[in-house]
Amino acid sequence: MNILSNFQYHAPKTKKEVLELLADIGDKSKMLAGGTDLIIMLKEKMITTENLINIGDVEELAGIKFVDGGVEIGACTKIADIEDSKELVKDYNALVFAAGQLGSYQVRTMATLGGNISHSSPAAETPTPLAAMNAMVVIEGKNGERTVKAEEFILGNRKNVLESDEMVTKFFIPAPAPHSASVYGHIGLRNAMEIDAVNMAVNVELEDDKKTIKTVKLVMGSVSPKPIVSEAVPALINGKVLDEALIEAVGEAAMSEAKPISDVRASAEYRKDVVGALARRLTKEAYELAMEA
After folding, report:
1. Interval 228-238: pLDDT, tens
2. pTM higher than 0.70
3. How many other C-beta atoms can be found within 10 angstroms of the C-beta atom of residue 104?
4. pLDDT tens digits for 172-195?
5. Which alpha helices (H) appear in 31-185, and where do they start and end?
């Protein structure tokens, strides 16, 4: 039987209370939001803690709010609320679709956006679409607030930029540019609630002619300890009209940047092949959607 180790339980009701706790015991505590990853790790004795700070009932940390220039999503917003949001799906399709691919629906009703990125798993679903859509992660400590780009938040496997007295409070995703679209895709075991072998998000913006690529951002997950933002793909297709030859070249370019490992889910060779296939498919899909936007 897996039994949790002893710890002190804290249930703050406001963000101010959370930040005060972090300033006092942050280096001796773990944050609990949905708990879908944390509780398992505690039960399996993968980690231990002296204090558990439950932020799941802090209302000001949850919710989807459209503001000038984009949308703010609270760190404690449930993944299922993102998946089910009819307001988000039009402009932030990549994130909404990625949310719907995370675990089972039961898990998604508990898991949070902030928890998914803060857990910093290489195979996490939401960091790649957040990065592709140029999201900013808002981080707060008792002494103030700072923001980092989504792609700069995760430093490695289970590692990120948070200091012991800080927490993610919300995300800001800018409104999509005209003639742009974002898409997400992944490969895992068929018909299984399995951790992704590879996931990817692509955001394409076109010039006013709705043919020439102005910018493309392709982000790969589960092929490196942290998400990889492609440099080769934009260098290859920015300023060009996409055709079949370029689509093939996009796949090769993305494969050249992937740094996968072999594990129980897939071999490194298979993951590289998947990267190429996803890059070709998603770039074409985002391009065609951007032409209609």
Report:
1. 999 999 999 99
2. yes
3. 9
4. 999 999 999 999 999 865 444 456
5. 38-43, 79-83, 88-91, 93-100, 105-108, 113-118, 127-132, 150-153
